Amino acid sequence: MSDQTAHGTVPIACSINGRAYSLDVQVNERLLDVLRYRLGLTGTKEGCGEGECGACTVLLDGLPVNSCLVPAYQVDGRSVETVEGTDEQWAAHLHEHGTTQCGACTPGVVMTARWLDDTNPEDLSVREALAGNLCRCTGYRGICEGIKATLKARQQSSNEEGNP
Amino acid sequence: MSHSDLLMKTEMAMPRTLKQACEVQSNGLHDKNDIPGMPLPVLKAAGIDLMDHWKEGLTAPGQVSNLLALRDPSLHRLSADSIGALCTLSAIADSTAVRKSAPVIAQAAESTATPQIRNVATAGGNLFQRPRCWYYRAHQFDCLKKGGHMCFAVEGENRYHAVFGNGPCHIVHPSNLANALSVCQAEVLVVSSAQGTEEPRRVPMHQLFCLPEDRLKSEHTLGPDEIAVGISYRAAPHSAHYEVREKQSFDWPLVMASVALDMRDDGRTIAAARVCAGGVAPIPWRMPQVERALAGINVKDTQRVRQACDLAIRGAQPMSNNAYKLRILPVAVSRAVRLAVG
Fold first, then answer.
1. What's the structural domain count of chain B?
2. Are B277 and B250 in a shared domain?
3. Cβ atoms of residues B108 and B177 within 8 Å
């Protein structure tokens, strides 16, 4: 084994849902496993385990990624947001539009929607943004409508806050 | 065994410098003599394709060298004429410099996979991903690429397979970035222990990939100890990438076309054209006959442009279920030409 390569565990410091964590992670450990099995953040689901279904979507420095494909050591010094870190407005609006059946895809869908919330909607349509989130129950119509309604409500709410 | 368990059984090198990465690639993680016959480590960037292989049971490498551990900033550098090998596809797609200098490259990066994948997938990984042929990807089929004795696509389901450069294996090249880079006269920069890291070897795109008749088990010409560290490309402001797909997003193109045009001063006449088709051959397939025919044409003369693009299918040898590609390909090329004109 070359001295110039690291093995075993590496220490990382990161922010997860706004809380600071210091962890020793194995070089082979996935972010998904750290979230679910070491931190108990089981809202993030494992579906395909190879980046196709999007059930494990989290935001890494504000961008959606498949946490099953992100090595945990790679989040050192970075910020992670999981479905546990989102506000309840998302759940309420999505529920209202019947976006959930089995619920396996919902945490990933919410995180992609959270990203859209920070993105210029003119640059990316909801349907395009959801290309990486597979749902086997709903047919997507309810999901898209729920997300649009939530984005609209949040936009209105932020406009009202900006114009007292 | 879960994917996580498979990962945990693998030894992973974490090289911090290119020199270290080259040493690992040339000697393995252990001393060369420790385990005679031990294959060299598999290079991993985002690891998306590697995970696909793992899950399907196509590979279970004992050693992986994780290029994401590298601290060299040049691997992430993006400019109007260069792309670091570790730049993500979303960074390439969003780069103002790339969009202005060579829109074809940004468009190809943008059309790949999903937002989640594009945020981690790298330029290098996109170029060197393995083919998506469903016989290659299924462990049940002992095809030529896996050391078997036949290409199952010949007698089987071949609607997504090649119509050019065919045989003995009939894959199509999976990288749309490679297609776009080909028309930007790109070169891939390669380092190795033997070569050193200061002066990378420059491999032109047309020498980077090889046909199955020349090499069956690999799609590229690099040696196992070589590492691609970046791409240099020439500006192509009049360029575009167009894909025909069954689904609007998250799908492999049936056919794609990348076009770069040099325009005369009048802004209407094509001085020179570079055209590359994808989804139709085992390598990005340059189309010199279309390039010659487009030169000198006024882009407003749609009939002549279409006639030139119709030459795209010359020499094609469709298989039993993919002759439809011959109807789509000229359309994809002509739409890419129209988009390139702007």
1. 3
2. yes
3. yes
